[in-house]
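the three lines:
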Amino acid sequence: MTLLQVDGASKRFGNLVAIHDVSLTIEPGELRAIIGPNGAGKTTFFNLVSGLFAPTSGSIRFEGRDISALAPDERVRRGMARTFQITEIFPDLSVADNIRVAVEIAAGYRLRPWLAGKARRAVAERVAELLSLSGLADKAHVRAGALSHGDQRAAEIMMSLALKPRLLMLDEPTAGMGDQETYDIARLIRRLHRREGLTIMLIEHDMRVVFNLADRIMVLAEGKVLAEGPPQEIAESEKVQGAYLGKAAA
Amino acid sequence: MTQVVLFNVFNGLIVGAFYALMALGLSLILNLSGVINFAHGGFLALGAYFAYTLIPYVGFWGALILAPPLTAVLGLVVEWLLIRPLYGKDPLYSLLLTFGLAYIFEDVSRMIWGAQSVPFQVPAWLMSPLSSQYFFLTGYRVFMVIIVAAAVGGLFAVLKYTRLGMRIRAGTRDLDTVSTLGVNVRVLRSLNFGIGIYMAGLAGVLAAGLLGLSPTIGANLIMPSFVAIIVGGLGSLFGTLLGGLLIGVASGLAAVYFPSATEAVIYVMMGLVLLIRPRGLLGEEGRIH
Amino acid sequence: MRRGRAFDAAVCVILLFMPFWMGAIGGYTELATRIVVMGLAAMSLNFLLGFTGVLSFGHAAYFGLGAYGAAMAIKYLDAGTIPAIGLGVVVATIAAMVIGALIVRLRGVYFAMVTIAFGQVFYFIAFRWNAVTGGDDGLTGWHRLPIDFGFARLDIFQNDKAFYYFALAIFAICVGAMAVLLNSPFGRSLIAIRENERRARFLGVPIEWHVWLSFVISCLFVSVAGALYALLNNFTDPRALRFDLSGNFVIMAVLGGMRSFWGPLIGAAIFVALQDYVSSHTENWMSVIGLVFVLVVRFFPRGVLGMLRSGAKA
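prediction for all of em together
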């Protein structure tokens, strides 16, 4: 069954049409990259899918069910998780506590006033697992706000992972990072995709990351779908080159 | 019966005009700077006391002209010294600070002018009724409505037609952008605060003539201002105006039919608005968070 | 919330012996009880304010409902002490549940404004409903009764110290419950909301529900404090419902340290002692209290424990 199906979604803010008639289908196990020049509407698209606002028209279906009217937290509970362009974590809590909160919520404990010994140990184990997956184990007790950019991003991805999502949405995961950090995050994403079999939708500007990781690429420009296809096709597309270079030339 | 109803509705409208004047100042400050000025009532009282002190020297009209700007100057000083450092911080802090200021203002008023009511001299001809049939239409009440209308009209005119007003309106929507466009945001906030306090001072002078003057005059009027803003809608000055008038009239009507609930009725209205339309009658979406 | 066990133990010891060392520094037992009661109120408010990050400036409403509930139960229903407290708590909690549901979609300054306004509703009711509440003069003509446990009798009426320990026991139960809650997955979900509401939402936390729960729990415990306060004074009046008391609760929490568990208790101790001292020495206690607000905000926003903590780190 198709995991995510967006049909003709549009979003206007007053007179501004941010997204126009965008459709997309994502199959389980895919890694889909969404690229495009600045202002193309990529993050708006993410906001639409993740539920920050409702589409002006069109529909969004997740695992066959229409989620267009659902609140963000409901969509998360249905299996969609996302990260943000500006990392959203709990700055004053330790890295371990950040992940622990996510693990507890994922385990359905968010209303529990008390955790028995067995449950507590299971949570601790899962937290340790996620810490080592991201290489943050030695920073477990550091205040999350004090971490480097790349580490905060990794922590945020781990928190989203803790939810055992069926679709992971990453908004510019390598934004503002140097080469080494970019490489580390890209490697982490690839591991999540290949080893853990996660379905991932990714907004990226760094073409090295895009072309190395993506199964299919969707190109947005000025709120509309410009092109869509496997990386090779997109790389050779004159339309796409025009969209990027044309902007630079102008 | 109609006389009584009319009397109370008219009274309610006057009271509502008051609430609106005070609430508009509060709303102005809240919308641009995100500060709940709990000391607004204190400024109102001080405005009245300044006028009271000036009347022997410049008469009622002189006091009416001079007291509000004087209060605004005090407001600017307070804003500069105490409130400015709090912008951008948790709104908790400005609320606590202005709360403390309200205490201080009331106590200082008591120290300087005494705890008892003081006689506030309004020109006698203003106090006389304008019509034998509608005895409640005293000159003072009509005069008040005129002044409030002028002040509100003036405020909206400033906001719509002057550069300052435009910047305030833009800043209410997006202060960051306004700042990057080169506007001095600190000065903007100060001036905005000053305008808000001016209105509080003016409301004070008018209120003293109607309700009498004592140190607690401000504390009694601040709650209805809050309710006016909530009912009228967050972020909308016009809504605040409407809210003030509505709750004034509502309490006026309540005085006829449910006298013991006159004060409570405005809270009932607030409860209803929150239930049915949380952002208020003219409130804008997205202003809630 | 990283308080050491040693600190907890120290607080317990200090509280356990307060009536005894209070006298030595010029205090008296009733003052000690007042500190415990206000401390409970401030800590209850802080459950919502410091740990969930939601600013309520109207908690006096529920404090007052607890007070009036208990007082009226004793005066009109001849209730025993514990049932009276229970009634006060039930009334306040129901009110909190209803009002909370109305306002939970708001946040920030607007939430604060609305909590203030709702507080005033109850103030007016207490003020106007003379026949039942005694109006502005307050509810008099009743007093707390000795508690009969069957095997023993605790004379909390005549014996100040007995009432102190009774209040302390209730304090301990409430505070213990709050500590357990804050240290649980539910408590962590609240702290998450405080830390980053958007991230909490995108982890699947239904924010409004959790804020509502935090609000109700916080009001429940504050109403216990209110009931104790009425018992302490054998009296209650509309001032127990007024927004200035709400403001006092907030300043107690901030003064002591909003981000720490015991902070509000320390803030309450300082505030109550100061108020007691100042009001017996000068007429201008209002200015002094106002000055406290201004000074705390300008110079000690992190509060006593907040400053001590960063001092320890550095």
